[in-house]
Design brief:
The structure is a single chain. The protein folds into three domains: about 1-65, no CATH class; about 70-120, Helicase, Ruva Protein, domain 3, CATH 1.10.8; about 130-260, Dna Topoisomerase Vi A Subunit, Chain: A, domain 2, CATH 3.40.1360. By secondary structure, it is of the alpha/beta class. The protein contains eight helices and ten strands. It has helices spanning about 70-80, 90-100, 105-120, 135-140, 155-165, 190-200, 215-225, 250-260, and strands at about 25-30, 35, 45, 60-65, 120-125, 130, 150, 170-175, 205-210, 235.
């Protein structure tokens, strides 16, 4: 491979990448963003994990060295996937390559599934879950115990608890948690709708499944105060030692909560 396409050497104290002026256009490689001086024709990274960003100075005219690798449509698909949680530019490129190689087996089913969900997507007016029907599958399931209600912050928490297949009741999604610094107040959440569900009767236990954070526990205490006038049992998820955890690696807060929630040996 010609030296033109390799990373610049670091033999001296100052790599040759620190030139006076490089192209403002960005030509992306696998790891770096490259620029070329027209009067020298050398390639150097503008941004890299090794070299800091280059300063622009006086110099000759500049131009991009390489053309984009993919078409605008494929590049747009890659950028769209890269914006998804848990995916970066490299993971998005690998996903796009897989879809292109497995067009019939992967891309076509994915398109059909996305179109079906996009056409029927709805928010459950009863619990706040996201599903393709209103009411959602959980609220419409007659096998669920309507006397038990689990309150969670987000839809992701609902899905996580439902995957355990251990809670037989129904859910209520708040849509967030109280946070004074962020300006999130009780009226910004579905707390009033929760109180209305309890006030209509038929609920014996409310499980407050808030996150073990300051904001989550503040939200749980606020809800507990709002519903203490109703004849319902209010419980919350146990906090303490995780399964497979070792005491030496746990923080003091987790250990303290585990000691407070200790129970007799069965």
């Amino acid at each position: 491979m010609p030296d033109l396409f390799r990373h610049p050497p670091c033999g001296g104290k100052t790599p040759w990448a620190f030139a006076t002026r490089w192209t403002p256009e960005q030509v992306r490689g696998d790891d770096d963003v490259y620029g070329v001086r027209e009067n020298e024709g050398r390639l150097a990274p503008l941004t890299s994990n090794i070299y800091p960003p280059l300063r622009r100075g006086d110099g000759g005219a500049v131009r991009p060295y390489l053309m984009p690798m993919a078409s605008p449509e494929i590049d747009a698909l890659t950028q769209a996937l890269a914006r998804l949680p848990g995916l970066g530019p490299r993971s998005a490129r690998r996903a796009v390559l897989h879809l292109l190689k497995k067009r019939e087996a992967a891309m076509a089913p994915l398109l059909r599934a996305l179109e079906a969900v996009n056409e029927r997507l709805a928010t459950c007016t009863t619990c706040g879950n996201v599903d393709t029907s209103d009411p959602c599958a959980i609220c419409a399931d007659p096998r669920r115990d309507a006397r038990m209600l689990c309150v969670v912050e987000e839809v992701a928490d609902l899905w996580a608890l439902d995957r355990t297949r251990l809670f037989p009741g129904r859910f209520h999604v708040l849509g967030g948690r109280l946070a004074a610094l962020e300006g999130i107040r009780p009226e910004d959440l579905t707390i009033d709708q929760l109180v209305g569900r309890i006030e209509r009767g038929g609920i014996d236990e409310v499980v407050l499944a808030m996150n073990a954070t300051l904001e989550g526990q503040t939200t749980a205490h606020y809800i507990a105060e709002r519903i203490e006038r109703f004849p319902v049992r209010v419980t919350q998820l146990a906090h303490g030692l995780p399964v497979g955890g070792e005491l030496d690696y746990l923080d003091e807060g987790t250990l303290a909560q585990a000691l407070r929630a200790r129970r007799p040996v069965a």
